[in-house]
Amino acid sequence: MKANSSDRPVIRPLPVMDRARQVTDALADYVEEARLKAGDRLPAERELMAALGVGRSTIREAIRHFQALGVIETRKGSGTYLLKPVSRATIHMPLSFDTVHLRDVLLQTLEVRRGIECEAGMVAARRRTSTDLVVIEEKLDAMERVHLEKGTSGPEDLAFHLAVYDATHNPLFRQLLEQMRETFERFWEHPFDRQDFARRSFPFHRTLFNAIAAGDPEAARAETLKILDIVEEDIKEMSK
C-alpha cells in the first residue's frame, strides 16, 4: 500500500547560520590551515571585513568570542595575536537540550545559572575595574530604556548579564553562558507568549549593579538570587 504523503515526516528548511558564528568558523579554519602558532598575528580587522564580506560589528563579535575562550588577545596599537592554537573542532562546546520540553529545559538551565551567576556576581564585585563598570552600566541603561518602552527587554537583559560575566576576568564564566545562549534567546523571543515574564525582577538589575560597583560580593549574590528566584517562580506559574 502506498503510504499517505500526509503521514510522512516534514523536512524543514535549515535555519540561517549566525554570521558571527560563520566568521568564528572561518577564522578557526584560517588559523589551522595557515598553521599559526602562539604569538602569531591575525589579519587586521579591515582585511577580515574585506575577505569575509561582513561588517565591523560582526568581526568584533567573533573576536570577542575568541577572547572569551582565551585563545587570542588584542594589543592596543599593535593588533590581534594568537595565544594558543585553535581549530573549528575546539572553539565550540555544544550542550544538548530537549527543546520540546521547554519548561523543564529552562528550569534545568536555571539550576546551572543560579550557581554560575551568583559566583560571577561575587567575583565581579571583587575584580571589576572602572572600565567594567562603565560597560555594565551602559548595558543596564539600555535594558532599562527598552524595558520602559516595551515592557520587556530580553536581549538587553542577556547583554547586561554577559557584561557582568566579563567583569569577572575569568573567561570560563562567559564560555559557559555562551553555550546556553541559543536556548535563552529562543526563550526570550517567546516566553510562554507572555511579555511580562520576569518583569518583577527588573528593579533588581540596578541593585545588582550597585552591589558590584560598591565592591560588595555578598550583596551581589543576594541581588542575583532575587532575580533568579523571580524567574523560577514565573517559569513555574506560566507553564502550569
Tell me the radius of gyration: 20 Å
Any idea what the shape is?
globular
If you average the pLDDT, what whole number results? 81
Largest sheet: 2 strands, antiparallel
Strand order of the largest sheet: 1-2
Helix-residue proportion = 55-70%
Structural classification: mainly alpha
Instruction: Please tally the helical runs, counting DSSP H or I stretches of 4 or more residues.
Output: 10
**What is the rounded distance between the termini?**
43 Å
Please write the string of helix (H) and strand (E) elements.
HHHEEHHHHHHH
Runs in which pLDDT lies below 50 for 5 or more consecutive residues are 1-5
How many beta-strand runs? Answer: 2
Strand content: under 5%
Brief summary of the model shown:
Residues 17-85 form the HTH gntR-type domain. The chain is mainly alpha-helical.
Report on the structure:
- The chain is 62% helix and 3% strand.
- By secondary structure, the chain is mainly alpha-helical.
- The chain has a two-stranded antiparallel ribbon.
- A hairpin with a 3-residue loop joins strand 1 and strand 2.
- The longest helix is centred in the middle third of the chain and has 26 residues, at 102-127.
Tag the structure with descriptive keywords:
TF_FadR/GntR_C; disordered N terminus; 2 strands; globular; DNA-binding; 10 helices; 240 residues; GntR_C; WH_DNA-bd_sf; two-stranded antiparallel ribbon; mainly alpha; transcription
